[in-house]
Amino acid sequence: MSQHEHRIIGTPRRRVDGRAKALGQTRFADDIVLPRMLHCKLLRSPHPHARIVRIDASRALARPGVHLVLTGRDLPIEYGILPVSQDEQALCLDKVRFVGDPVAAVIAREELIAFEALDDIVVEYEPLATISDPDEGLRVATPRIHEYGEEGNIHKRVAFAFGDTDAGFAEADHVFEDTFFYQGNTHLAIEQHASVAAVDPDGKLCIWSSTQTPHYLHRALAKVLAMSPAHIRVIATPNGGGFGGKSDPFNHEIVVSKAAIVLGRPVKICLTREEVFYCHRGRHPVLMRIKTGVKKDGSITAMHLQTLIDGGAYGSYGVASTFYTGALQTVTYRVPRYRFEGCRVFTNKPPCGPKRGHGTPQPRFGQEIQLDKIAEKLAIDPAELRLRIVESPNAVTANYMRLGTIGLAECIRRVVERSEWKTRYRRLPEGRGIGIACSSYLSGAGLPIYWNAMPHSGVQLKLDRGGGVTVFCGATEIGQGSDDVLVACIAQILGIDPFDVRAVTGDTDLTPVDLGSYSSRVTLMMGNAAIQAAERAREQLAAAVAPHLEIPPTRLVFAGGRVFDTEDPAAGISFREAVCLAEARFGTIGTVGSYTPPASPARYKGGGVGPSPTYSYSAAVVEVEVDPTTGWLTVPRVWIAHDIGRALNPTLVRGQVEGSVYMALGEALMEEQTFRRLPNKLSKALVHKFPSMLEYKSPTTLDMPEVFTDLIEDPDPRGPFGAKEVGQGPLLPIMPAVANAVYDAIGVRIDEVPITPEKIVKALDEKRAGRTPRYGPSAFPEIAWPEALRVPPPWEGGDGHAVNDPPRPRSAKKSKVIHT
Amino acid sequence: MTLPIESKKSAHITLRLNGEAAETSFAPYKTLLEVLREDLGLMGTKHGCELGECGACAVLVDGEPMLSCLLLGLECEGRDVVTVEGLDHEGRLHPLQEAFADLGATQCGYCTPAFLLTAKALLDRDPDPSRDAIREALSGALCRCTGYLQIFEAVEAAVVKIAADKKVSR
Questions:
Q1: Percentage of chain A with pLDDT > 70?
Q2: pLDDT tens digit string along A580-637?
Q3: Mean pLDDT, chain A, as a whole number?
Q4: Are residues A122 and A137 in the same domain?
Q5: What is the rounded CA–CA span in Å between residue A182 and residue A185?
Q6: Does residue A258 come out as left (phi exceeding 0), alpha (psi in the -120 to 50 range) or beta?
Q7: Mutation for testing the B interface, residue in A485, A701, A702, A704 having most B CBs under 10 Å
Q8: Whole-model pTM?
Q9: Is residue A812 over pLDDT 70?
Q10: Smallest Cβ distance to A659: which of B43, B46, B147?
Q11: Torsion sign across C-alpha atoms B144, B149, B150, B151
């Protein structure tokens, strides 16, 4: 590898969109203003569960300045992000399922007029009994929130047995069984969702929207509006933060599109902060039971995980989330036999969905606390215990996840060293403590949401005679640095300045499909596609330049804006001249690249969730200080090491790590999306406890600890230049590390998040009373699990198939159809 | 068609906006945030709640950071308002802007204008603030992307740059 090769990759650089953002000139969806634009507001249900008897919008329509009122009848076709959960309507037609479910839309000349006209709409509801939590949902079968699902209000139930766990527990020296609860929380992106839809001069629909998934919005719009996708253009504006909260196709996006078509004028909507809390799709509340068998040396003989998941009112990504609560328990430590059962229940609350870590932070929280308990019982240092059981690189796990490189041991060693773990753990004065935890995460979901054989990411390159390069890709910039990764990969291969590359992204008319900014997939998948496109362009240029310099193409180096002879660097031409030579020889220069993840060895039904080209790993040590009187908890310091494979732009990688630590501390200490019942005289509705930023607590500058970040670079051949994900993984170890540190500080276990002062005080009261010094759930309800799919692990002679795989239902086959 | 009375642009103010004399007419109920974005076309000022909770809409009014969603446009008669559009000078970025762009202090960029302006107000009154003073000054704005640390570092880098620039110009 020549010294020129990595001048861009691996060097801390200003991100390509840094200037625009520092100038405040990045155009977010709500910054778009079009001539003759109208404004839309949604009327939302005040009832958590009710039948819609009648809607009368005549008074609203008569109000001066009101152009249109839409109701469920105008948009009856159901949609949803997953093929198996097409359970949403843009405006509720027959019934509402949570406080905040939209029933009508007013489109008016001004936002204020639309807002006031909402009061003119008369909706007659017939309230229905509500389901407030999964416990109630398991017990109460009617009324059903949805007419589909397993039975009653159970949305999805899954059960797997990977190997003989009974034998595993039998051969264990100790078996641990614990229950944990992870409260739900929300993304709280500072940008409120916004969309502008317009019919363009050619008569086609165009929508600008704060979406992380323009491709899936494109599909949903085509379905609900019954239009050809060729006549719909989705432009994903840069997102003012996403974190998973802008990954579903949303009702407001469909409503403004319909309104723009009906009226022939641009229509905008920008949600209020309160409405963003109703959009939600955030972290699922999960109750967990984890049973783990270990040998005296700490090696795990078997694990059995059960999860009970509060889904909220719609499917969203929930079926995937359910699988995700069980899919990644095996990819961090060696778990030779594994049993997993998961159950998602519908409740009359805003729908839960994917938030940073999607379904995996909850079981990770339980698993890492339980490991702390195991270490204590076995009298092994918790860091040492983890080092002993780290999975092997390139292993295939019990549930058939094929792993890549694993830098976890090095991550653990690094945080142990930097935090002076060995001299501080168990040795700090009462009230101060440190805790450790680890994690792993996908570098992109191995399967698309709609199963098909096409690439997950596509990139096109256009080379200009002036030496400029334009790169086109459907990937979406949500702040994570998607555009920067794209440009860096191209600039590196072609040896040009990133500033000479223009990125056109997230536009279904102009850019090839990239599935979206979710599942930590962009760097790996888009990066590999970009490298392929750029290498193809470089090949063409080399074929034209080599005869010109009278050397073989293999001797050419592309660097510093030049193409030159590696043996005689002075002999060369500018990149611009190289493009001209190539264009003269081959015609217009344009190349494409695409990326499809490798096939997974998991061949069983449900094995589509969890596989990834490779996985990232993180280890964290958190230090806490606890006031034993008030329970007040502060976090002064965090040490975190992340196995990034290779840091493409270390400045941005560090930002992702620290941003994850920040968001994780919010979840660990304060953030919670909770609900309460209004009193009888006020309709008994189940309402969001605090749909505002003031009361939904999130960490400020004053709460942020010092963070010592280490990037562990062990390039993974599956990643672009060896890179793995960083957007989600580093969030995962923080919550359990905080809980473990609290135990080190004051000797009480807080087995649920958020870890609030109130819970600490209660646990300390238990401790003083001589009872189990713990705060957390005590029981896991009885659930009628289906017969487990039995998939023998490779070491029990399995081949990735279930031995009792039931025939696939017809709908599963249908989901493979690209466009229905 | 008659519009509701409150929608008429019956309010009128003159002010100093980003260093220049300006005047504008708007509906009297509008906040400064709305007047800036909707009537003056200055989209750099962002909103995250319109209730004074998130801090994203901060602008400088007479040099002090203020939440433009809590100020009426009418209250700004005769006052000096600086938005993010007033930070760069003749095409050159302010040292804070350079540092934010270079050092990872901006990720999605949505809260960035508010952080830049709040930091500028701090540096205008304290050219060499401690890390704690920076934390304190910026505590009214929320950022969900960065975890704040690279923002602190960018402010500190700008402090060094501004001091060096002053030395040169002396």
A1: 97
A2: 999 999 999 999 999 999 999 999 999 999 999 999 999 999 999 999 999 999 999 9
A3: 96
A4: no
A5: 9
A6: alpha
A7: A701
A8: 0.97
A9: no
A10: B147
A11: positive
Contact of A481 with chain B, judged by CB distance below 8 Å, is answered with yes
Q: Let me know whether A120 and A137 are in one domain.
A: no
Task: List chain B domain ranges.
Answer: 5-86, 95-169
Q: Which of A223, A256, A279 is where one domain is finished?
A: A279
- Check whether residue A547 and residue A661 sit in a common domain: no
Structural domains of chain A, count: 4
- A159 plus A290 within the same structural domain: yes
Note whether A656 and A527 are same-domain residues. Answer: no
pLDDT for the residue numbered B37: 98
Tell me whether residues A651 and B103 touch, CB distance under 8 A: yes
Q: Does domain B95-169 have CATH number 1.10.150.120?
A: yes
Q: Which residue has the tokens 């004065």?
A: A429
Q: How many angstroms away from the CA of A106 is the closest CA of chain B? A: 16
State the residue range of the domain holding A727: 383-443+615-770
Mean pLDDT of all residues in A186-199: 98
The answer as to whether A152 is a domain residue is yes
Could you please state the CATH topology (level 3) that the domain comprising B5-86 is classified under: Ubiquitin-like (UB roll) (3.10.20)
Q: Give residue A808's pLDDT.
A: 53
Find residues 259-278 of chain A whose CB sits inside 8 Å of chain B: 272-273
**B84·A480 Cβ contact <8 A:** no
Question: Is residue A49 within 8 Å of A97, Cβ to Cβ?
Answer: yes
CA distances to A501, A626, A657, A745 from A765, rounded to whole Å, are: 62, 14, 36, 15
Position A807 scores a pLDDT of 59
Q: Is B93 on the interface with A (CB under 8 A)?
A: yes
Give the CATH number, domain containing residue A89.
3.90.1170.50
Q: Is the dihedral of CA B154, B158, B164, B165 positive or negative?
A: positive
| pLDDT digits 0-9 by tens, A413-432 | 999 999 999 999 999 999 99
Residues A124 and A197 in one domain: yes
pLDDT band at A805 (very low <50, low <70, confident <90, very high): confident
The answer on A193 and A111 residing in a single domain is yes
DSSP letters spanning A40-96: EEEEE-SSSSEEEEEEE-HHHHHSTTEEEEEEGGGS---B-SSTT---B-SS-SSEE
**B163–chain A nearest CA distance, Å:** 20
CB contact under 8 A, B109 and A110: no
Which pLDDT does position A811 carry in this prediction? 46
pLDDT at A813: 42
Say how many CA atoms lie within 13 Å of A75 toward its Cβ: 33
> What ipTM does the predicted assembly reach?
0.97
Q: Is B28 on the interface with A (CB under 8 A)?
A: no
Q: Are A495 and A558 in contact (CB under 8 A)?
A: yes
Average pLDDT over residues A281-298: 98
Spatial contact of A117 and A108, defined as CB atoms under 8 Å apart = yes
- Across the interface, whether the CB atoms of A190 and B101 are under 8 A apart is answered no
* A331 within domain boundaries: yes
CATH number at residue A541: 3.30.365.10
**Domain match, A681 and A627 both:** yes
